[in-house]
Design brief:
The complex is a heterodimer. Chain A is mainly α. Helix content of chain A is 75%, strand content 0%. Chain A has a domain at 92-303: MetI-like (MetI-like fold, Orthogonal Bundle), CATH 1.10.3720.10. The longest helix of chain A is centred in the last third of the chain and has 39 residues, at 212-250. Chain B has one domain (2-19, 40-255): MetI-like (MetI-like fold, Orthogonal Bundle). Helix content of chain B is 72%, strand content 0%. Chain B has helices at residues 2-18, 51-87, 89-103, 109-118, 122-133, 135-148, 152-159, 164-200, 212-221, 227-255. In chain B, helix 8 packs parallel to helix 9 (212-221) and helix 8 (164-200) packs antiparallel against helix 10. The two termini of chain B are 26 Å apart. Classes of the chains: A mainly alpha, B mainly alpha. Chains A and B meet through helix 1, helix 6, helix 7, helix 10 and helix 11 of A and helix 3, helix 4, helix 8, helix 9 and helix 10 of B.
Chain lengths: 304, 261
């Protein structure tokens, strides 16, 4: 099962590499012309074409691309001429910090809210939790971000508006990223716990005369949280995609901001590298989630 | 609840149609960043343009893009799913490997990448969204087709010599329609958000055309002096997305579709 799962990742990773490689070739017209603009001399163009290897046949280009990637070489930025790998190394920690804090906040909000909602099924805490999670899921980051900025930075003055200068700058973007995930976690925890509370073993625990608190904490909660683990894994990748927008809103210098800047400057090698790194991280996180799921739930995988 | 959602949706559809008679591009220099007033009910933007009129024009873009992309991806995705699920074998494996690759890009990332290389403007925006959002339909249709292709009535049709297109369209497709319609409704909501996201990043609709994403970007810039700008656009976007999602929920309950894929 483990081996099979690992094997299944290979074609996906290959496809991701191929698709990101082909991105530059989707540029209508001559990519070199688009990247350099009209003022470039023909010597510059020839130079860049050779640097990017665009003067070679496609399969050779792809092979070279893979070979360089294997050595951790993402090429150079057209704009700043810096090694892309060192730019990435600078930006990735900022995004990782943001995503992990967002995940922590989402767990702190989502899990308790989901549990409370399930335990008060169809009463007002449940309705309130359902309604707020529905509302939050209709609030994309580029609307929630400015709203939180307005309330917490401009009206209340508790947190800095944007940037990365002070230590508390991270809270608003992290909260922005966290809200959508918290909404999903609330819904999932609620649904999963409700289902578990109907299981036979819960009825047995109740019949034994256990207090409801122990029934929930000791018997129902653990199995109920299993599907939530999968959701967290899947959503961690979406956090990275959400970071593209959130980092832009708050001027957070992470990989998402780097992606948007590179698009604005038509610095396509950087764009390519950012897309690739985010997608591969997503694939990796999904794989780890799958594996963790097998470890957590004794019912999964052993028999097969 | 779903009646309220329907009213909100119809309101925005009407607003989008009314946009043809409004003048969202007229600049009133005396009204730059004015808060809501008699002449301009939701206030004015950074060029003194009427925010309400621009919201209507933005709704028009948003709904047109969402509807177009949904029509295209519904047809393409469903066809791919039907073919993959019905024929199975290497074709199925190939097509599903392709969908796996597309699903390996989280959220809107791939659409951003496509929009970035294709260039700006509404046509490329639609193309970028089409390229990335057919996958959901393909997966859903394939899973359902796999489950249905062994049914008696399909076997009967095969034995009676019905052509493959006939079996796919007349014997399988009608049974898939309910879950697909639910999927399509939810996808309209996410397409509205996706269009706004790309326009927010400057990749979609270009100035001076109105779009909700670009308006949110401009509004964020003037958050301190004119909070009404961001609030008006944000609430509009939220109301439309919420309404479509609630209709999706209602449709799912009505059609008794369970969340399977």
């Amino acid at each position: 099962m483990l081996f099979k799962r690992l094997l299944a990742v290979i074609p996906v990773v290959f496809g991701v590499l191929l698709l990101t490689f082909l991105l530059v070739h989707l540029i209508p017209g001559d990519p070199v012309e688009v990247m350099l603009g009209e003022s470039a001399t023909s010597a510059d163009r020839t130079q860049l074409r050779a640097d990017l290897g665009l003067d070679q046949p496609l399969p050779t280009q792809f092979a070279n691309y893979l070979g360089k990637l294997a050595q951790g070489d993402f090429g150079r930025s057209i704009h700043s001429h810096n090694e892309i790998s060192s730019v990435l190394a600078e930006r990735i920690p900022a995004t990782a910090k943001l995503a992990l804090l967002a995940l922590a906040i989402a767990l702190l909000i989502g899990l308790p809210l989901g549990i409370v909602a399930a335990l008060h099924h169809l009463h007002w805490p449940d309705r309130l939790a359902t309604l707020s999670s529905l509302t939050l899921s209709a609030m994309p980051h580029f609307w929630l971000g400015p709203l939180l900025m307005l309330v917490f930075a401009l009206w209340l003055g508790w947190l800095p508006v944007s940037g990365m200068e002070s230590g508390s700058s991270i809270f608003l973007p992290a909260l922005t990223l966290a809200c959508g995930l918290a909404a999903i976690l609330t819904r999932m925890t609620r649904a999963s716990l409700l289902e578990t509370l109907n299981e036979d073993f819960v009825r047995t625990a109740r019949a034994k005369g256990l207090p409801e608190r122990l029934v929930v904490l000791r018997h129902a909660l653990n199995p109920a949280l299993l599907p939530v683990v999968t959701v967290i894994g899947l959503q961690l990748g979406s956090l990275l995609a959400g970071a593209v927008i959130t980092e832009t809103v708050f001027g957070w210098e992470g990989i998402g901001r780097l992606l948007v800047e590179s698009i604005e400057k038509r610095d396509y090698p950087v764009t390519q590298a950012c897309v690739l790194v985010i997608a591969l991280t997503y694939v990796l996180v999904n794989l780890l989630t799958d594996l963790a799921y097998g470890q957590l739930d004794p019912r999964v995988g052993r028999g097969k | 609840m779903s009646k309220a959602a329907l009213v909100i949706l119809l309101f925005w559809v009407a607003a989008a149609m009314a946009a043809a008679w409004l003048t969202p591009d007229i600049i009133h220099l005396d009204f730059i960043l004015c808060s809501p007033n008699h002449a301009h009910w939701l206030g004015n933007d950074d060029l003194g343009r009427d925010i309400l009129a621009r919201l209507c024009a933005g709704a028009r873009v948003s709904l047109t893009v969402a509807a177009t992309v949904t029509l295209v991806t519904f047809s393409v995705g469903t066809s791919v799913g039907l073919v993959a699920g019905y024929f199975g074998g290497w074709l199925d494996r190939l097509l599903m490997n392709i969908t796996d690759v597309f699903l390996a890009f989280p959220g809107i990332l791939l659409a951003i990448a496509f929009a970035a290389v294709l260039g700006y403007g509404v046509n490329n925006l639609i193309l970028a969204l089409c390229l990335t959002s057919w996958v959901g339909y393909a997966r859903l249709t394939r899973a359902q087709t796999l489950a249905l292709r062994g049914r008696q009535h399909v076997l009967a049709a095969q034995v009676l010599g019905a052509s493959t297109p006939r079996i796919l369209l007349h014997h399988l497709f009608p049974l898939l329609l309910a879950p697909l319609l639910v999927e399509a409704t939810f996808s309209i909501a996410s397409l509205i958000i996706a269009e706004a996201s790309l326009s927010f990043l400057g990749l979609g609709i270009q100035a001076p055309s109105a779009s909700w994403g670009a308006m949110l970007r401009d509004g964020t810039r003037y958050l301190l002096v004119a909070p009404h700008y961001v609030l008006a656009v944000g609430v509009s976007l939220m109301s439309l997305v919420l309404a479509v999602n609630m209709l999706g929920d209602a449709l799912r309950d009505r059609l008794d579709v369970r969340n399977e894929c």
